[in-house]
Every structure is written in structure tokens, then in C-alpha cells.
Design goal:
Keywords: Iron, Iron-sulfur, Metal-binding. By secondary structure, the chain is α/β, with parallel strands linked by helices. Helices cover 30% and strands 18% of the residues. Helix 4 runs parallel beside helix 19, helix 8 (223-236) packs across helix 12 and helix 8 (223-236) runs parallel beside helix 14 (305-318). It binds ligand MGD (2 copies), iron/sulfur cluster and molybdenum atom.
């Protein structure tokens, strides 16, 4: 038997690890990490190793589907679907105007950059600004904070250089975010061996908290106060970099006075941390010379995420933890433009007030986009501007959005719901059209997405000029009729007589990117996939076609780039980073005002906190028999003390009741979770009209949230972690097998 090894990019999450798939007689038989890959260095996770099988799961859609009058779905060719959907969109535009058509781009609308670029061009062609993404139900504080604080042009230090790291509500070893690179375990181990110190802020002893030098195992929802306390203490003890603050920032005095109330004693009360713990963390962070801070979903979903993300940047600026003149810049950018190599910061910019206003809750577009948490209301609220048609690209609103009950009403109220998805998701079940795409190994892959994420902040993207390209390694399933998403948008534009002007993703500056568009005129023939990538990466530092034609790029390679040093700030540079942005300080004043307000633990004694599992990615992989063996039920991790108080045994079904709804999960006793917290993964469960299935699909944590209470005024994100709940053992106990 002949074994052939094919190099490929995993596309099951944003990390884009370099993998090798072994084929025997043309059939894929095994996948493993590629130890020679310069970025992922042999790393793979179970999802990546299963991805070759994902293509042929029995649940894989081989045809697009059209909803019938009786509510069932019948197969339909994608070409017919494109013609029918575009007719319907045109009719809706004719009656209600272009803004009645919205798009929601979920995680797989990011993982497939060509799909996203064409979808955005389609929205521009129909003249609708109603573009929503998962960013505003993820870490929307990041965009707000970057704009309000300004961008340090040279960027932050990378993990090889760190002497310290502070992780706030993020668990990079599982999630692959937070700056530890593409092999987070290995990189963390190497950094610690070198002497790097780690501070973790998390109510749970997460994988990274196990390795922390200081773990602040706080109550959830107090991150802004904790970071404010650390910043205050650093200033009080004079640990900050006074020269950097003086030369490169504005707003120090305003910051200092806003931080005054955040004494260790005051912050101790709500956070549940001891004053000494907070002081020790401040002293440790204040001792670092080249460090990074990463806030994750935990810090963004539990209230005051903008303030937490802003303090992340403020702390780095207080300490001058940014790359300086003479430091090495190892990655000028390969497929995506890199940061300018100058030691200078831009000033504060408005993070809202420039874009589309929504009709509900005074919400509007911000630096993180339109507030997705308000999209259900925009669909349900009658009157001019009501959204009538929704295109869902690689997302699953029914299991991912907060306030599942309202989301369900909204999805049913639409005149047209179109989902691009390779399987019948809970949202697809409600769709008028389900467009079945080619996926992952059936298409060209590039590492552009991961490089694109450099714009998220320090530690994202690649530290070296790394690139990988892969050609399709699997045929589409026999008898299938599938398209790439961009082909569908191209076909719809054609049938509506619209030109598509595809804007590059390679250039982060919006105005610059607008000068790098590629025109696909109405009715033009479908471009080949390489031409499509050329358009999507137009203006990239290294031309896409050159990289594509480089055989070495197939395995993943470092490009030859001249060594480059960060240059001094230009003499006429007037801008400075802003550590005292008034709107952010106002949010901090509100956080300060809460310090003395006792949390209500009477009605709702517990808090649901979100977490990720290594085997599952959001709502994906539940259909994989192998994964389900590893994670047989929807787990609720509970501290033994709470288990005892509630009379719960491991494997019991627990009812979790918030002010909004009740869901059921299976308990796992976990001393790692702070008592009073319940650590539950999201994107499980069924639709609200389905029977509970506690041992199967589990519960949906989105159902526990109201989207219109405790929401962020800028991004609309409501509480999606730190959700107040009460718990009880379910009276009807199905027999649960103990989880492995
Ligand atoms: N295996 C796997 N990888 C993934 C995903 C997945 O589903 N599975 N999802 C992907 C996506 S979409 C994203 S956005 C990233 C997210 O990446 P991360 O933000 O790193 O997500 P988590 O791993 O859930 O880590 C969040 C941590 O926050 C803690 N936490 C919860 N509430 C609070 C709080 O109020 N304060 C603090 N300080 N901590 C809190 C939780 O205990 C948890 O350890 O991961 C991505 N990667
Ligand atoms: N309570 C709570 N809620 C949360 C979170 C939380 O931590 N707690 N996390 C939030 C976060 S960070 C995020 S990002 C959102 C996730 O929000 P979404 O992106 O809306 O949800 P996913 O489950 O990732 O949906 C991805 C969909 O893409 C489909 N898909 C897979 N591969 C492909 C492909 O190649 N092409 C196409 N077209 N589709 C594909 C999958 O079948 C799936 O239905 O959820 C948010 N919701
Ligand atoms: S971490 Fe992400 S990219 Fe890497 S193997 Fe796992 S799913 Fe694939
Ligand atoms: Mo996310």
C-alpha cells in the first residue's frame, strides 16, 4: 500500500495549524501535526486530527436546500438557489429598501476570508450597511479600547521576548488566542523555563492558571476593577515607566485620579480577592520589562469589557511594554500588511459616533461593528428600517447569540433567512434556504486569516514572516452539488445585474484598502480560485501569486526578509497614546461606584461563567461520534462545596435558572472552579420549541441571557458570562453515564 503525505492548513479554528494528512491508495487515513512546520511545530488538536473525516460525516449537506410550503426542506441546485434568493432579496429591497437586508458573519465567515470579502462586496453592491459579525458577541471591548487608547505602531513584544504575561479571562492553551502562538503549551513551557512570570485572572483554575506564578481566582465580572486596582497600585508604588508615560502618552493625571477609589481594600470586597493578592499581582506586573496582557472572552462577556480592555492597554503603556527603537521587527507581513516599524503611538480616536445608528437601545456602529446582540430586536421591531432578510455566513445564531428565546422569535419573523452551512445547524432548521458550501480541504487554504488577526493586538498573528498555502486535497462528496460561498455571492450579483467590487483584506487601513478593489462586473464568468485569492489579498506585502507559486509555501515556510529594526519616532510626530480617554474614565467611574454595592446573592446565589472545551468549537463537532465519546454530555463544572450544598452527585442533571430561562446540564465535580461559579461551555442545546434533552444536546447558555438588560452601551454585548442563576438538582433524573 502506498502512503502519500499531504501538507495542509487546518481550518477548524483560526489558528490554522500546519498538518499532514496521510493518504493510503488515495484515501485519507490519518492526520498529524507537522513537526517541521515553523509556526505550529508539530502541534495538532483533536479537531484538526478529525477534520479529514468532517468532510464525510453523515450529517454533511451535499446539496443546498429550499424550504417547502409544509416547512420541510427539499434539495435544490446551488445555481437555482442563487437565482431564487437574489429574486427574493430584490423584491424585499424594492418593497422595504436596501437596509432591510442584513448579514451576520460568524466564525466560519472569518475562517473563509474569500467568502467574507465577496459577502461584503455584495452588501456594498446592494447598498446595505447592515453588516453584523460575531465580534460584538465575542471580545468587542478590544476594538473600542484600541481606538480610545491609540495604536503603538511598532506593536507589542512577542512571547519569545516576554519576561511577563498577564492573562485575563482567557485560556490560550485551549483557545489558541492570547498571544502564546500556534503551539501554546510548548511556547508557555519554553517561556517559563526562560524565567517568564505568569499572572492569570480567572475564577477557574484554567489550564494556564495551573502554570501561573500568581493566580487571582476572583469572582467573575470584576476584571475592570481588578485591573484598575493593579494600575493604581503600580502608580502608587512608582513602578511605572515615567519616561515613557511622559514622552508617549497623554492623560496620566486624569487616569490617576479616576483610579483613586480602586484601593486593594475596596476592590477586595466585590472581587473576593485578598488585598495582599492584588498588591502582589501589581508588584509582579510592575516588575516586568517586556510583558504582554491579553484579555479574553471572560473579561469581555461579564460586564464593563471596554474598561477591562482599555486598562489592558493602559497598563502596557504605563509600563512602556511596547517595542522600542532598535528592537527587531521580525515580521513585516507576508499576506497582510504589517505594523509600521516606528516607535510612535497614534492618538485617541472616536470609537463610535461615525456609523449606522440602530433603532433600538440607542445603539450604533462602533469600532467593533454593529451590535449583533441587538439584531434580533432590529428584526422584530416594526417600522421603517425593520430587517426582513438575513444572510448567515458561517455562523449559528440560534446557539451562539445571547437571548436565544428572542433570537428564535426573530428568525421565525424574517421574510427570508439564508444560511451558508455544511450541516443542518439549529439556525439552518429555520432557514428558507440553506446553501451547502465546499469546505476546508476541498478548497485552497492560506494563512491570511491568522495573519489578519495581528490587528487584534499584541501576540496575535505570526511573530515571523510565516506563510502556508495549500491546494484542495479532497474531492467533494460523490453526487454533491456544492459551491464556494464567494461563487454564490458572485452568482447572486450577476442575477441582480450588480457589479461586485471586492475590497482587499490584505490592507488593514480602511481608506487604503478601499483603493485596492477588484471589479467583477455583473455577468462576468466565475473567476478561478487563484484569481479570487489574488483579489482578496490585493496589495499584500508579498504578492499572493508569487507565494502561491512557491513550492516551499506548501509546507509552510518563513520568507526571506531583511532584518529590520524599529525606527525612532519621526521628528514631526505629534500624536500620543491616550491613557486618560474621558469616555473610558467615565466607564471606570461607574465601576468605582459599584465597589460598595453588594452583589445580590440572595435571589441568584451562583454565576454561570463561560469556558471552552478542547474537543468542541462553539456549536461545531457535536455530531462527531469520537468527540461525543470524549464529551458525552453538556458539562456544568461545579465546585465540590456547591455540589454538597445542593445535594448534587457527579453525573446528576442540574437545572440552571436565570431571570430569563432554565436550562439543564450534567454536573461534573470540579475543585478547579471557584465556589459560587458554574463553568459551562456555550453553543450547546436545541431550539426553544424542542424537548429538553439533558443527556444529549444539553442546554443553551445563550438562553439564560436577556439581550436588553445589563448590556454594554457601545457594543450592545449583554452578560454572556457571570450570569446570575440559581441551581437545583433536576427532579426528574435521567440516567447519565459518568463523563470520561
Ligand atoms: N477548542 C476551542 N478553541 C476555541 C473555541 C472553542 O470553542 N473551542 N472558540 C474560539 C473562539 S470563537 C474564541 S472567541 C476564542 C476565545 O478564547 P478565550 O477567551 O481564551 O476563551 P476560553 O477558553 O473560554 O477562556 C475564557 C476564560 O475566562 C474565564 N472567565 C469566565 N468569566 C470570567 C470573568 O468574568 N472574569 C475572568 N477573569 N475570567 C472569566 C473562564 O473560566 C475561562 O477560563 O477561542 C477560540 N478557540
Ligand atoms: N453564553 C455564551 N455565548 C457565546 C459565547 C460564550 O462564551 N458564552 N461565545 C461567543 C463567541 S466568542 C462567538 S465567536 C460566537 C460564535 O458564534 P457563531 O460563529 O455564530 O457560532 P458557531 O457555532 O461558531 O457557528 C459556526 C457555523 O459555521 C458552520 N461551518 C463550519 N464550517 C464551515 C464552512 O467551511 N463554511 C461555512 N459557511 N460554514 C461552516 C458550522 O456548521 C456552524 O453552524 O458565540 C458566542 N456566544
Ligand atoms: S488548534 Fe485549531 S487549527 Fe490547530 S489543529 Fe486544532 S482546530 Fe486545527
Ligand atoms: Mo469567538
Amino acid at each position: 500500500m502506498e502512503t502519500e503525505r499531504k501538507h495542509v492548513i487546518c481550518r477548524a479554528c483560526h489558528a490554522q495549524c500546519g498538518l499532514i494528512v496521510d493518504f493510503e491508495d488515495g484515501v485519507p487515513v490519518a492526520t498529524h501535526g507537522d513537526k517541521d512546520n515553523p509556526a505550529s511545530a508539530g502541534y495538532s488538536c483533536i479537531k484538526g486530527r478529525e477534520l479529514m473525516n468532517y468532510h464525510s460525516f453523515p450529517t454533511r449537506l451535499k446539496h443546498s436546500l429550499e424550504r417547502q410550503p409544509d416547512g420541510s426542506h427539499a434539495p435544490c441546485s446551488w445555481n437555482d438557489a442563487a437565482a431564487k434568493v437574489s429574486d427574493k432579496i430584490q423584491a424585499i429591497i424594492d418593497e422595504h429598501g436596501p437596509e432591510s437586508v442584513a448579514i451576520y458573519i460568524g466564525t466560519f465567515g472569518f475562517n473563509t476570508l474569500t467568502a467574507q470579502a465577496f459577502a461584503l462586496a455584495f452588501m456594498e453592491a446592494i447598498n446595505s450597511p447592515m453588516i453584523f459579525t460575531s465580534v460584538t458577541i465575542d471580545q468587542p471591548g478590544k476594538g473600542i479600547a484600541w481606538f480610545q487608547h491609540g495604536f503603538w505602531q511598532a506593536g507589542a513584544y512577542r512571547h519569545e521576548e516576554w519576561d511577563g504575561l498577564m492573562l485575563v479571562g482567557t485560556n490560550p492553551v485551549v483557545s489558541m488566542q492570547g498571544g502564546l502562538g500556534m503551539n501554546p503549551n510548548k511556547n508557555l513551557h519554553a517561556a517559563k523555563k526562560r524565567g517568564m512570570k505568569l499572572i492569570v485572572i480567572d475564577p477557574r483554575v484554567s489550564d494556564v492558571a495551573k502554570k501561573a506564578d500568581i493566580h487571582l481566582q476572583c469572582r467573575p465580572g470584576e476584571d475592570a476593577a481588578i485591573l484598575a486596582c493593579i494600575a493604581r497600585q503600580i502608580i502608587e508604588e512608582d513602578l511605572h515607566d515615567k519616561a515613557f508615560v511622559e514622552e508617549e502618552t497623554v492623560g496620566f493625571e486624569e487616569l490617576k485620579s479616576t483610579l483613586a477609589p480602586f484601593t486593594p481594600e475596596a476592590v477586595s470586597k466585590r472581587s473576593g480577592l485578598k488585598p495582599e493578592e492584588l498588591i502582589a499581582a501589581a508588584r509582579m506586573y510592575g516588575s516586568f520589562k517586556k510583558a504582554d496582557i491579553a484579555c479574553g472572552t471572560g473579561a469581555n462577556m461579564s460586564g464593563y469589557g471596554n474598561a477591562a480592555e482599555y486598562l489592558n492597554k493602559v497598563l502596557m503603556s504605563l509600563m512602556g511594554h511596547w517595542k522600542r527603537e532598535g528592537d527587531l521587527r521580525r515580521n513585516p507581513g507576508v499576506l497582510i500588511e504589517g505594523f509600521p516599524p516606528i516607535a510612535a503611538g497614534t492618538g485617541s480616536e472616536p470609537a463610535w459616533g461615525f456609523g449606522k445608528k440602530l433603532r433600538v437601545r440607542d445603539l450604533e456602529e462602533s469600532a467593533s461593528g454593529l451590535p449583533t446582540a441587538a439584531l434580533a430586536d432590529e428584526i422584530l421591531t416594526p417600522g421603517e428600517g425593520q430587517i426582513k432578510a438575513l444572510i448567515v455566513l458561517g455562523g449559528n445564531p440560534m446557539l451562539a447569540w445571547p437571548d436565544q428565546i428572542k433570537t428564535f422569535e426573530a428568525m421565525k419573523a424574517l421574510d427570508l433567512l439564508v444560511c451558508f452551512d455544511p450541516r443542518m445547524s439549529k439556525t439552518c432548521e429555520l432557514a428558507d434556504y440553506v446553501i451547502a458550501p465546499k469546505i476546508h480541504y476541498e478548497t485552497i487554504g492560506t494563512t491570511a486569516l491568522n495573519e489578519f488577526l495581528t490587528s487584534f493586538g499584541g501576540g496575535w498573528g505570526y511573530e515571523e514572516p510565516y506563510v502556508q498555502i495549500c491546494d484542495p486535497i479532497l474531492d467533494t462528496p460523490p453526487g454533491s452539488d456544492l459551491c464556494e460561498e464567494h461563487e454564490f455571492f458572485h452568482a447572486m450579483a450577476g442575477s441582480m445585474g450588480l457589479d461586485l467590487n471586492v475590497k482587499t483584506k490584505a490592507i488593514l487601513d480602511h481608506d487604503q484598502a478601499a483603493n485596492h478593489k477588484t471589479l467583477f462586473p455583473a455577468g462576468s464568468p466565475l473567476p478561478d480560485p487563484v484569481t479570487v485569492w489574488d483579489a482578496v489579498l490585493k496589495g499584500s506585502p508579498m504578492p499572493f501569486r508569487e507565494v502561491y507559486n512557491d513550492p516551499e509555501a506548501r509546507k509552510g515556510r518563513l520568507m526571506d526578509c531583511p532584518e529590520e529594526r524599529i525606527q525612532a519616532k519621526p521628528a514631526d510626530w505629534a500624536e500620543r497614546l491616550c491613557i486618560g480617554a474621558p469616555a473610558m474614565l467615565e466607564e471606570l467611574d461607574e465601576v468605582a461606584a459599584r465597589l460598595d454595592v453588594k452583589q445580590d446573592f440572595e435571589t441568584y446565589p451562583y454565576r454561570v461563567i463561560s469556558r471552552r472545551l478542547s474537543d468542541i468549537h462553539n456549536s461545531n463537532w457535536h455530531e462527531d461520534p469520537l468527540q461525543r465519546k470524549r464529551v458525552p454530555h453538556h458539562p456544568a463544572f461545579i465546585n465540590p462545596k456547591d455540589m454538597n450544598d445542593l445535594g448534587l452527585a457527579p453525573g446528576d442533571v442540574v437545572e440552571i435558572e436565570s431571570a430569563r430561562a432554565t436550562i439543564k446540564c450534567v454536573t461534573i465535580e470540579s475543585p478547579e472552579v471557584r465556589a459560587g461559579c458554574l463553568s459551562v461551555p456555550h453553543a450547546w442545546g436545541g431550539n426553544p420549541d424542542e424537548d429538553d434533552d439533558p443527556l444529549g444536546a444539553g442546554g443553551n447558555t445563550g438562553r439564560l441571557s436577556f439581550n436588553d438588560r445589563d448590556f454594554d452601551r457601545r457594543t450592545g454585548i449583554p452578560l454572556m458570562s457571570a450570569i446570575p442563576v440559581r441551581l437545583r438538582r433536576a427532579s426528574n433524573q435521567p440516567v447519565a453515564e459518568a463523563a470520561e
